[in-house]
Structure formats: C-alpha cells, structure tokens
Amino acid sequence: MDFTFTLRGDGQVPTRVVPAADQRKALNLTLDALKPSELTVPERVMAMIPPPPPGFNTDLTWIDGGGGTAFDQVTLAGGLANEVIGYLLQRERAARLVIFQARDANALGLDEVLGTNRATHMGRAGAGVVGGTRGVARVTAGHARCHARPGR
Q1: How many CB atoms lie within 10 A of CB 152?
Q2: 24-47 tens-digit pLDDT
Q3: Which of 73, 141, 148, 152 is the most buried (most CB within 10 A)?
Q4: Alpha helices of the chain — where are they, by DSSP H?
Q5: What are the tens digits of pLDDT across the range 49-73?
Q6: Residue 133: which of 60, 44, 40 has the closest Cα?
C-alpha cells in the first residue's frame, strides 16, 4: 500500500493499493535474494575475512556463528533469510495482504506469498550453501509460528 500524509483539501490521495502485478514482481525480486546462488559467499571472499583475535570482545561480533574462528557462511545466509522473510511476513503487512485480498480476489494474498516462497525455496536441493533452502524453510516456519501465537 502506498500512503501519503495529506492535508484536507490538498487533492492528494491518502492511500492506494499497489497493483497486484507490481506486488508480484516485487515479491519475486525479493525472494530472488534467498536463492542459494545469492546466499553463497565465494571462497575468495571467505579467505579475506580473518578470525577475531584472542581476547576480542565477542559482543561486538557482527556474525555470531558456531564456527569459532572459522567464518560461518551458513549463519550469514540465515541472517539474510531472517531479514527478508521477517519483512515479508511482518504482522501488519500480512494482515494487509488478507484485507486487500478480501476486497479484490485478484490481489496478492498471504497464501500466495507463502506459496511462492515455498515453491521458490523449499524442497529444492541447494548448491553452495549447506542447508540453504532448509534454512529459508526454518526461518519461514519460525516467523509463521510467532504470528500464530496469541498476544504477539
């Protein structure tokens, strides 16, 4: 949904539902960021990332992976997946998908967002990122569970 903070009489349209075709295009472009080919950190890049020095304050670590002194590309990929899926399934955004589809059956709906994500990333063998597609599935399930909890 596009919205503008309008003033009475200024002639602006305060809210507008983005056309379904534009929403579907944006969804596909967003989900492209989670393809294993996009989540893969090239070996030459991993070789340039040094381990933290002894005594380094681990509270300042920007990638808190399980690899100890080894760069953990799986945790990095999971972090990106968490950001992307988290924004796609943000509570108010998910509610708007349901509301707008109730108004217009051709609108992009929550079921379609989840289904497109599932079709794009789940159940495919991923190359390059160990468990890349499983990680996307795990992140999606985690966000869905959070939304299903009462009071959250």
Answers
A1: 8
A2: 999 999 999 888 888 888 889 888
A3: 73
A4: 20-32, 36-39, 43-46, 73-88, 91-103, 110-121, 132-148
A5: 877 777 776 666 556 666 667 777 8
A6: 40
CB contact at 8 A, 117 and 136 = yes
81 domain-assigned: yes
pTM of the model: 0.73
Q: Name the helix (H) or strand (E) containing 2.
A: strand 2-3
In this structure, what token pair is assigned to residue 44?
């030459």
Distance CA 124, CA 35 (A): 10
Residue 63 domain-assigned (yes or no)? no
- Provide the 8-state DSSP code for 35: S
Report yes or no on 98 lying in a domain: yes
Amino acid at 134: R
The whole-angstrom separation of Cα 58 and Cα 81 is: 23
Could you tell me which of 13, 23, 14 has the C-alpha nearest to residue 109? 23
Examine residue 22 and state whether it is found in any structural domain, yes or no. yes
Q: Which of 33, 48, 125 is closest to 82 using CA atoms?
A: 33
Work out how many domains the chain is built from and give that number: 1
Nearest to 79 by CA among 62, 94, 96: 62
